[in-house]
Amino acid sequence: MRDNIHILVGDLGGSSFRLALLAADMSIVASAPVSNPMGSGDESDPDRWWFSFLQSAEALAQLAPAAFESIAAIAITGATRTMVALDRKGGVLFPASTFRDARAAEHAAALSQRIPATYLERSALNAFHPVARLIRMRAENPTTFADIAHVVDPKDFINFKLTGVIASDAISSARLAAAAEPVRDGASLIELVGLPACLVPPLLSPTSVVDGVRADLPGVLARLVRKPVLTMAHDSWSAVLGLGALRDGRAYNLSGTTEVFGIVSHRGADAEGLLRVDWGSGLFQLGGPSLAGGDTLNWALNFVGRSHQPVAEALDAVFATPRGPRGLLVLPHLSGERVPFWNPDLRGAVLGLARAHGPSDLVRASLEGVAFLNRLVLTRAEAALGVQADEIRFGGGGAGSAAWAQIKADITGRQVCVTASPEPGLTGCGLAALVALGIAPDLDRAQERYVTVARRFAPTAEGMAAAEPLYRIFEQAEAVLAPLSEALAHL
Q1: Does 240 map to a domain?
Q2: How far is the C-alpha of 343 from the C-alpha of 246, rounded, in Å?
Q3: Residue-wise pLDDT tens digits, 320-339
Q4: What is the C-alpha to C-alpha distance for residues 258 and 396, in angstroms, rounded to an integer?
């Protein structure tokens, strides 16, 4: 019976909406991605996401009709730090504020000055915080804002369209839920700033079922009536699960349009610039998302005319080119930065550029710059937790490149492991569905059973020795150049 079931999974990310059918063994039977429905700016249209979902579902029903008819559950994940404001009936009030949106920076700074230190959420306030974004929305359009009832993630919006039920999970909504917790004299941060207390939707566990698919949906979705729709969590949680890294002491690195790096631990600890979030089952993550990563790589590959190629193919060609002299350093902050600096005004920099350097050297240095940022997060997390991760589970588009995996191993000094699944976010959705369906007893054993490591990259003595002095200069450059970045950003 289990061999005949399939799971409809989806990942709404920064560059595509990947919808697929998984078999019970987590293999991909068919996939139908849609390119970039999130867009590339501060705002995005949630209705466009829903249209993409419908479009992909229709394609999957044609690609694998038998598998589509045997769907047993639906599990959708999506971009974190992307916020959708809904009215009481689930109508969209504003364009979604995406993970790139730093327009609330001034509101966050003003709020930090205004609220007492007793509010623990004060230390987490920045341009990407939901409360700062909500204050900006209210200031710019108070009439429309008066109808706000709930704030949800992209995957919650898709779940609502499927089921008619508004809900989220405590992982994706951690910052908003913390802001709604009473702190001083029985008041919460949300109440202090005059926001409605109802903003936090009902919070379920990721493996809980929101509801069944409603009966009035168009096209092939009419065949899925009453099929269970999982709550799920954001894309980072899902991908970490899909990498088999949702375990105590395991480090993870997700490399897509942006990078997410951190350590999962039973210990709750704090570190400068890092996010600590309760990831359920007694586990916390310490780390978080940056704005550097695949986007930085694509920018660099433009210089060698290879941005149109698959990452692994493009990097193989770049690394076949003889290397110029050492000493070239790139700070990869092309769009500001989140973890660990939380500064939307940071800008990229190239240091040590010499006449002997060519375009390929700039690509290499850009990859190294992202890896230096990974090491900075890893170092702070390990120090706070009092542990040393023995390996880093590496997934996402960047994990297709052996060259980048080796760079990360040499710079972090840790073994980098790439799993067999090319889509860890989709695998994570599938694993959560197996638990919800009772096929796997829990997430830990689901990871043991279905996640395998395909390639391991050990740090080399030569690579570590070459990286060490550059990393020390990277740390100094971040501190010295930040004020200059901010000055340039305001010109």
Answers
A1: no
A2: 28
A3: 888 889 899 999 999 889 89
A4: 10
Domain count, the chain: 2
b/e 204-218 (16+ beta carbons within 10 angstroms → b): bbbbebbbbbbeebe
Q: Say if 238 falls within a structural domain.
A: no
CB-based contacts of 193: which residues, under 8 Å, 6+ apart? 111, 115, 131, 135
Choosing from 233, 267, 284, the residue where a domain stops is 233
Q: What is the mean pLDDT of residues 278-297?
A: 89
And the tokens for 484? 């200059």
Q: Is 473 within the bounds of a domain?
A: yes
Which of 176, 200, 233 lies at the terminal end of a domain, its last residue?
A: 233
What's the pTM value of the predicted model, to 2 decimals? 0.92
CA 45 from chain centre, in angstroms, equals 19
3-class secondary-structure state, position 42: coil
Same domain, 178 and 200: yes
**Amino acid identity, residue 201?**
P
DSSP code string of 210-263: EEEPPTT--GGGGGGTT-EEE----HHHHHHHHTT--STTEEEEEESSSEEEEE
pLDDT digits (tens, 9 = 90+) for 162-218: 999 999 999 999 999 999 988 767 788 998 899 998 899 999 999 999 999 999 999
Could you tell me the residue range of the domain that residue 153 belongs to? 2-233
Tokens of 220: 């092939």
pLDDT digits (tens, 9 = 90+) for 240-264: 999 999 999 999 999 877 889 999 9
Pairwise CA distance, residues 451 & 419, whole Å: 7
> Checking DSSP bridges between strand 228-230 and strand 209-212, what pairing results, if any?
antiparallel
Give the residue among 369, 302, 291, 300 at the shortest CA–CA distance from 331: 369
What does the alpha-carbon distance between residue 177 and residue 483 come to, in Å, rounded to a whole number?
33
* pLDDT value for 1: 44
